[in-house]
Amino acid sequence: MRIVLLGPPGAGKGTQARRLAERYNLAIIATGDLFRSEVARGTPLGLQAQRYMDRGEYVPDEIVVKMVLDRLDKPDTRDGFILDGFPRTPRQAIALDNALAGKGRPLSAVLKFSISDGMAVKRLASRWTCSRCKRPYNTEFKRPRVEGICDVCGGQLTRREDDDEATIRRRLEVYREETEPLELYFWERGLLREIDAEAREEIVADRTIEAISDLIDLST
């Protein structure tokens, strides 16, 4: 399976990506992590991206696309992959489609996780993430057994500086402005599948599996 995840901040894309990856042996490709890795390793693409990031500018599509496509050539994507945070624009989506078609590996589905703005604010304002393994926690919905410590790896939990209500609501506005054309692009190609993500993690996981049940049947 080759899947793209869409959804506003707070929709739980990262959590569901991990569940899918573990269940179906899929590689997760999150563009934020990919950027940080390329920059930390000082690769040519990472250095190019860093120049834009240092100025607070968007990294041009051609650099982002090249990073992702290079990552998709790695052996661990052979059984399938999950893209989280890419594509963000129709131009990126077209480049991805063309590249995958050329390799005979077209996208299987695009999963859109939908939640209300109120729920997004509630989730993000109480969100914490393990600094080591990146597992998410939430003081409202999914508390760690020991305050401030990851249940899985024992890492320290941290909170994003921009997880305040005003910033979250602005991020939601920007998300809608940017992704409406992208959702239309995938809908026109028959790839978009919407999932109601305004529920507990386990319920959303069941809904996600149901949404891709036909793909699972084809791969078995």
Secondary-structure map with pairings?
Elements: E1 2-6, H1 13-24, E2 27-30, H2 31-41, H3 44-54, H4 61-72, E3 81-84, H5 90-102, E4 109-114, H6 117-125, E5 127-130, E6 136-138, E7 157-158, H7 165-188, E8 192-196, H8 201-211, H9 213-219
Parallel strand pairs: 1-3, 1-4, 2-3, 4-8
Antiparallel strand pairs: 5-6, 5-7
Helix pairs in contact: 1-8, 2-3, 2-4, 4-5, 6-7
Task: For the structure shown, list the relevant keywords.
220 residues; alpha/beta; Rossmann fold; 5-stranded parallel β-sheet; 3-stranded antiparallel β-sheet; 50% helix
Descriptive account of the structure:
The chain is α/β, with parallel strands linked by helices. It has a single domain, classed as 3-Layer(aba) Sandwich (Rossmann fold). It has 9 helices and 8 strands. The chain has helices at 13-24, 31-41, 44-54, 61-72, 90-102, 117-125, 165-188, 201-211, 213-219; strands at 2-6, 27-30, 81-84, 109-114, 127-130, 136-138, 157-158, 192-196. It has a 5-stranded parallel beta sheet, with helices on both faces. Helix 2 (31-41) packs across helix 4.
